[in-house]
Amino acid sequence: VLSEIEVTNPASGSLWGLGQIISLEHPELRCQRIDYDSKSEQTQTLTAVVAEIQSQSLENQISIRNGVRYVARLAQEHKQRDQQNQPLQLKLSKYGVIDNLNWQPMERHCPSGNEVEIQVATVGLNFRDVLNALGLLQEYYRENLGITSTEQLTFGFECAGTIVAVGEEVSQWQIGDEVIATMIHDGFSSFVTVKAEYLLPKPQQMSFSEAATLSTTFLTANYGLKQLAKIQPGERILIHAAAGGVGQAAVQIAQEVGAEIYATASPGKWEFLKSLGIKHIYNSRTLNWAEEMMAQTEGKGVDVVLNSLNGEYIDKSIEVLATGGRFVEIGKIGIWSTEQVTEKRADVKYFPFDLGEVVEQQPNIITQLSAELTQQWDKEQLKALPHKVFSSTEVSSAFRYMQQAQHIGKVVVSMPEVKNHQISIQPEASYLITGGLGSLGLEVAQWMVKQGAKQIVLTGRRAANETAQEVIAELEAVGTSISVLLGDISVEKDVAEIFQKMQTLAPLKGVIHAAGVLDDGLVQKMSTQQLTKVMAPKVAGTWNLHQMTKELELDFFVCFSSMASILGNASQGNYAAANGFMDAVAKYRRGLGLPGLSINWGAWASGGMAVRLETQLQNRLESSGIRTIQPEQGMEALESLLSGSQGQVGVFPVNWSQFLTVPGMQKMPLLSELISTQPSVPQKSGLLEKLEAIAISERMELFTTHIRSMIAQTLGLKDGQKLERRQPLFDLGLDSLMAVELKNRLELTLQTSLSSTLLFDYPTLEALVEHLADVIPLEFSVTDNSDKSNNMSRFEEMSEDQMFGLLAQTLESIGGKKIDK
């Protein structure tokens, strides 16, 4: 989910708005709006667009960015908190699906005693965070930490940032110090309060992103290899997952000691490991590495193993240890007990550990370990790990990226700076209000004067009427200079003259574009004159204002748009298209680094174009649950939004329970998030509802498309349509963790419990679809099942050992215990 899609062509906004009206006036046309990124590879984009058109999805507002499909959703503003101004913390609404991660407001905790508060700049993502989100550590957290619900769960075990407050007992740190915090539990927060002994100084030569790669990885590798295994020069060490975070730290430490490295990684990461000077590299996707390694070491094996894998990898890793070898275990799931290791190899020294538990038992261990590491970082003997940075709005993508083992080194999430972004009206500046002689423009002028404005420019096509003159006189009576400049805002020459006359005023700091007209009519019968009349002030006018102000240092550039471009309103195709352009320009400006805000107002109780609406239309809006905006409410909203960070916000009082009874509204995908919050609306699966609504003969195609999409999202495939029906999902990279998430996703959308071995029992799209079609309580058209036996072909081709390996992996992912053959 993206809170805001970048706009590169504002003209598309008009088509987007018009499409909303076409959907209302002609639902039989299934008007879809697809916004694709022109920067992406053309073939990939076209394939995705064609797939979207061919699908039976009810989604009608889609954006495709870098091969990823996004859909439009309307959410209440309190769920879209301003991430720049409000401290946030990452939370999980429900275990099992990474997409359930979301940012929620947090309370800061004032440090006391030996504590410090840090404003977080970057967070290092750890595999345990992913396991937490998938719910695979629920039992451990319940028994050891007393965490019984997702409400208690937090994420982030390490971060980098700046100290903003210190407790009364802290002497070694000061406000403003740049630090790294480790062994914390809530790093995915705008602010964290931690014990001073859990801090390390950030190396001056490193960025915050680089610093976020250091603590957990190097502390773990250092403790495991130097403190426990006591690795020596010339010894052989096997590092599993050597391209990962701890693996990369271990590589650097082993090289610094002078040990000989044997590494496992997926084939796609071999070239990277070779570039580090590692000569012995093996495939982590198979078990053949053990035999190859023993051959290369002439049967001697390795002296040390640093393990993070489970299942048969543990068995094989113990086998390749030399006599008296040391096995360092940092895994979390399915690890062996000391008794199991002793039973297999009594000569092996076994060191399983969790760094967090070590720190609890030895509080000073971080200080001891970091003393040496800090010197090595400062001298660049040890360096920051390779890493990929995600923004806070991409946090789900970051988790999925690690889950799918695509990363080399670390995955880092950057946090937005929390700052007071309050915009104030300045007495030494001037402000422009287009449509300023109308009722709504005058309301804004009165509000600005109350905020302290001393110079305001009002524009209009015609001279001020008697009412406007009275308001202007009142404003001037309190010491405000009001300049009335006539001209057509849609005419470039007129706009240029207006700005030329404004040169004598104080610097322009804000623009409110409130000009607009109405001329309703059905799309099918709309004349060119109607279209041009309504589009001119909002399309040409907005663009003219953008061109004249793009080089100025404005505090705000606000377009008064309409809810028509979001929800639509039959007979207002031209108006929705015009306002859609305004919405797009605001986002376009933000993409250029300029201020831009489009407010989709509802109908005003007094002033604005609402007073000119036909009585019939006003009654229709009222009966559908849409209320009018009182002027004081509108100005309060304007003041709040000026200090926000959103590019587009709708402001319209709505009784949603009443509005959702309007025919067609409950099926509008845009409103699905709001529908889920209404107690009067049945909590029904969107998929099941869609399947019920279409002909039986069409259900299987929609059902298959949905399952394919779920698989593609879990696997991170950019084009789900390329997924062959009989292609084994495990050949595409599905592993036990992904199988857990995919099962959870399917349970949510199908509203039924599914077997924990679902993906192992039905490992292809075809097999999965056929099974799930039998599970849900809906009738599908009869299809030819003569090929069902082919679903077992993958298993028939397996050896006994391969089948046991698959079974063991499945059972261990469920129970967390090693399964003996």
Question: How would you describe what is shown here?
Answer:
The protein is of the alpha/beta class and 821 residues long. It has four domains: 86-214 and 388-414, Medium-chain alcohol dehydrogenases, catalytic domain (Quinone Oxidoreductase, Chain A, domain 1); 216-383, NAD(P)-binding Rossmann-like Domain (Rossmann fold), CATH 3.40.50.720; 423-657, NAD(P)-binding Rossmann-like Domain (Rossmann fold, 3-Layer(aba) Sandwich); 686-815, ACP-like (Non-ribosomal Peptide Synthetase Peptidyl Carrier Protein, Chain A, Orthogonal Bundle), CATH 1.10.1200.10. It is built from 30 helices and 25 strands. The strands form five sheets. Strands 6, 7, 8, 9, 10, 17 and 18 form a seven-stranded mixed sheet that branches. Strand 14 (302-307), helix 10 and strand 15 (321-329) form a beta-alpha-beta unit. Helix 18 (528-549) packs parallel to helix 19 and helix 25 (696-715) packs across helix 28. It is globular.
In short:
The protein is an alpha/beta fold and 821 residues long. It folds into four domains: 86-214 and 388-414, Quinone Oxidoreductase, Chain A, domain 1 (Alpha-Beta Complex), CATH 3.90.180.10; 216-383, NAD(P)-binding Rossmann-like Domain (Rossmann fold, 3-Layer(aba) Sandwich), CATH 3.40.50; 423-657, Rossmann fold (3-Layer(aba) Sandwich), CATH 3.40.50.720; 686-815, ACP-like (Non-ribosomal Peptide Synthetase Peptidyl Carrier Protein, Chain A, Orthogonal Bundle).
